[in-house]
Amino acid sequence: MAPECPCALHGAIRRARSWAASLIFVAVVFGPLIALLAQTGASARAGDLGDASSLLLADRQAVLLGRSMGLAAGTALAALLVGLAVATVLWGWRRAPWSHLRWLAVVLAPVPPYIHGMAWMHASAVLSRLLAARGLAPLPFRGWGAAWFVGTMAQLPLAVGLALIGLEMVDPAQFEAARLLAPDVQALSDIALPLSAPFLAAGGALLFILGLTDYGLPSLFAVNTYAMEPFAEYSATSEPARAFVLSFPLLVLACVAVFYLQRALRDAASTRARGQRSAGVALSWPAGLRAIHLGALLTLAVHIAVPAVALATVIASPSGWLETLRLARGEIGLTTRICLITSVLSLPLALIAAERMRATGSAGRIWRVMVGLPLAVPASLVGVGLISLRQHVLPPALTDGSSLLVLAALARFAPYAALVLLAQMRRQDPLLSDAARVMQTSPWQGWWRVRLPLLAPGLLAAGCIVFALTAGELGATLALAPPGHATITMRIYTYLHYGATDEVAGLCLAMVLLAAVAGGAAAWALARGPRRAGVGGGRSDD
Amino acid sequence: MIEVRAVVKRFGEVPVLEGVSLELERGASLGILGASGSGKTTLLRIIAGLELPESGEVLMDGRVVSRRGWGMAPHRRGLGFVFQSPALWPHMTVAGNVSFGLRSLAAPEARARLGRIIEDTGLGRLEQRYPAQLSGGQARRVAIARALAPQPEWLLMDEPLSNLDRAARDEMLALVEHIVAESRAGLIYVTHDESELERLACRVLRLTEGRLIGDETR
């Protein structure tokens, strides 16, 4: 028998390494779900599920699910429409410094929805007092209407970001060709919007999922949504399998939304870097559209101003705010530690997933679904799944203190980091990596000297986004945090239902500032990326 | 008439055009020749309104259409533009692409115009196809038809034959020559291949590092 060729051996080692990396991603991100699935199967075989399946078919559940879908759809649609209007304005900003500043519109995207809820509740209370002083009825700021309004406001920065990315994906030459033949509004409606429609639809699906799986914000306005049900069931019975069964409708809906998301990711992954549309003659819109733009920009301004102003006015003084932060230093320290560890650990996981999402064919499709699916899993289910893992699988070293909180944040937010890295990879000229592959003296040299520097802005942005999202994580944390390991969000949530006290407002303001700094750093890194990479900002030939 | 007066353009700190001036009578055919990076594409885009000059002006029929910080909307300039890539809209058929600039016309007139231009450019059997179903040469023909459909006074072409093989280039050159003569539109044709201009341009400008270094009439 002929000796095995060294190339074959290298290939086998490479494949084994690749499989191992994939397995690590799957274990970390899907571990909680797999554990729940296994436990549900075992419970079903043992006949322990009882009436859980009948719970699913109960009238109350159906009505609740229908209402939750309506709320999530209404929120996503409103946020996307306003976000699109804002994005069309920002899309036209081509000259420095405006072209750089437009991404600042999305810096508040990582602020948790319940903090928006908190701020808007306070703002409505102030407004009601003013109305009462004039003998008018107070604002009825509760229920589904209030939850829809604040949910829309909370999703607005993400909607603006998604719409802007969708418009930026349109080939500049195709839009310019339309501008030469027709007014700008027609070029927008007939060319730019249809071409970006698949991505916008996927963005709407993502917003829908996020709205459907959030129960923190609706509960502030006394609205019970379906996302609360699995957590409530687990709290009442301590049976993970029952919580998982109750999550089925959410997971099925989310899978449909993820299907659309996957198609948009495929397009994003296969689109090569394009030159940016140059400044040229400013876009000119008819009066009606200008009025809509103005309204949308004002809405965005209100969205930014209300959390900052409302929370700042509750805080008695800067020294009082500092005292609040001093009293919460234990929670702040723990939160910072968890966020830092999660940010760092999420990057290799994200790299694994982003690389595989770029693949063509069924492998790439499977990975895009795998990265999209965790976005749709309710946070509380991740928490319950990790509890199940803790009981049966995890070594003690991983179940102590804050380790479970890190695992929960990794399972929830590593996919976001992967999406950011995918976006960064898409913006690079693939020839840069190909050239390194041909000329490198070793794979390590090519990776260290070429690929890593090209990816650095995306890694920084991904790390910042994971940091901010982890800081605001609540759903899984509530289920997992052991006694003596409270995070900032837990402290906020504990005091939240007492209203906008000094302490809650102070901590919320700190969260807003943290999210703004992390979001701003991510926006800066991404805006800077293509220029550093030598592509994307380039022109045709001269 | 198109007048370009002392146009300067920089991208960041890099000068691309340094005080370029030219005049072009209505119906003339001009070739702009230069190596990559000489500024020829930028000059064409400034005339079209897709870029604005840092200083200097562009006039059409005596009226300023571009100056520093302001420009007339591109679609009001009466220009057709063919890009280096066909830049066809993938969600529209060939007929949809070509008739995009005809929406201000009454339907019967637009249909008649579309029929004529489709016939002139040899796209008769391809009307209902989508861009993804076209060959490279067919896509270029659609791009030319789309630019000419509104009957522009000027047709601007930015290296429209790049990435075509020799046979396709010869065929396209003959087509451009024929339809420009038929339409009586003025032509500004940018290329780095002098042989393309032999059949198309009566006047040739040479551009190097953003400066005009030659202006010959043939």
Architecture overview:
The complex is a heterodimer of chains A (542) and B (218). Chain A has 542 residues and is mainly alpha-helical. Chain A contains 22 helices and no strands. In chain A, helix 1 (6-46) packs antiparallel against helix 11 (240-270), helix 11 packs across helix 15 and helix 14 (329-357) packs across helix 19. Chain A starts with 5 loop residues before the first helix and ends in a 9-residue tail after the last helix. In chain B, helix 4 packs parallel to helix 5. Chain B has a domain at 2-87 and 152-217: 3-Layer(aba) Sandwich (Rossmann fold). By secondary structure, chain B is α/β, with parallel strands linked by helices. Chain B has six helices and eleven strands. The relative contact order of chain B is 0.20. The chains are: A mainly alpha (542), B alpha/beta (218).
Keywords:
heterodimer; A: 542 residues; mainly alpha; MetI-like fold; 22 helices; globular; disordered C terminus; B: 218 residues; alpha/beta; Rossmann fold; 6-stranded mixed β-sheet; 5-stranded antiparallel β-sheet; 11 strands; 30% helix; 31% strand
Secondary structure topology:
The complex is a heterodimer of chains A (542) and B (218).
Chain A: H1 6-46, H2 52-57, H3 59-91, H4 98-101, H5 113-133, H6 143-168, H7 172-179, H8 184-213, H9 216-220, H10 228-237, H11 240-270, H12 287-314, H13 318-327, H14 329-357, H15 361-372, H16 379-392, H17 403-426, H18 430-439, H19 443-471, H20 475-480, H21 488-496, H22 502-533
Chain B: E1 2-11, E2 14-24, E3 29-34, H1 40-48, E4 55-60, E5 63-67, E6 70-71, E7 79-82, H2 94-98, H3 107-120, H4 136-148, E8 154-158, H5 166-183, E9 186-191, H6 194-200, E10 203-208, E11 211-217
Parallel strand pairs in B: 3-9, 3-10, 7-8, 8-9
Antiparallel strand pairs in B: 1-2, 1-4, 4-5, 5-6, 10-11
